[in-house]
Design a protein that fits this description.
This protein has 302 residues and is α/β, with parallel strands linked by helices. It contains ten helices and seven strands. Helix 10 links the parallel strand 4 and strand 5. It binds S-adenosylmethionine.
Length: 302
Amino acid sequence: MQKKCDRSVQQLRSPVCACCECPLRVSALAYGSLRRLICLMTEPLRPPARQRRTPPIVVALLLQVLGGALTVGTAYLLATVGLMLPPLGAAFTTGVYAALLGRAARLDAWWMVIQLCFAPLVVLVSAASLPPGIWIALFAVLLAVYWSTFRTQVPLYLSSTKVRQALVPLLPPGRFTFMDVGSGVGGVLTDLSAARGDGEYHGIESAPFPWLVSWLRIRIGGHRNCHAHLGSLWNQDLAPYDVVFAYLSPVPMAALWAKVRREMRPGTTFISNSFTVTAAAPDRVVAVDDLHQSRLYIWTQR
Ligand SMILES: C[S@@+](CC[C@H](N)C(=O)[O-])C[C@H]1O[C@@H](n2cnc3c(N)ncnc32)[C@H](O)[C@@H]1O
């Protein structure tokens, strides 16, 4: 006979019910997974202050459409004087319009290059007439890797081997806890755990594919002191960690610094690869002689 459980599925915070023979156990497991999935889809991926700003990618796309409309107008005017705009010429004109409009809309400088090249590249690549399956596969791969970049404005790129080596002497003596916010494919965690086995390493990553790679890497490599979590760094409490490491982008740095100040304990260390904050000068800067001449900005919390 199965025991009757007096808790409803909604009351279950954990998918595992204490009552082992509970008939609700299966539905609780499904409920827990569903709840986790919904949280993941809806949790904030951008710092709170920026939630209401239109993402630059949306602005850029709209400006491409506007650039296309202006190109149609230009082609029409040219046609009235007997001039034909070839497809590549039209694409290039669209790029120029989109780049100029992007400048007026105050997109960052690197968006101008994207705006200029986007339409000409579309024309050139479609002329290559590749099988459609390639595009679907490419789209699926890019979606899995850059899943949340649209919202976070932090793409996936990796700290160099030299940066990972430069982090080792910055770790505190004795046992310590380490958190990589935006841990990508987990290379920082596994390299540091190989160099300093006395640390407890955690990483939080919002994009599913990089997270899966890091999870597998940790399991296959037998890094028992490494843990990869799938979720948003904005929901991650930084208080338990002695060292917090970030390699993100200029966009979230001000909000991340505010979070660090709110949550990290005095005496703990915040390290940012390549991106500093305007609110406080770093206590120390370590120059790394890698391809990008990376810099590690280090703040000890007071
Ligand atoms: C530049 S990569 C750095 C990867 C790794 N930390 C390293 O140094 O090699 C930044 C990563 O942060 C992730 N990311 C961006 N915003 C995030 C957020 N709000 N929560 C969790 N991860 C985030 C991105 O998906 C990306 O994989």
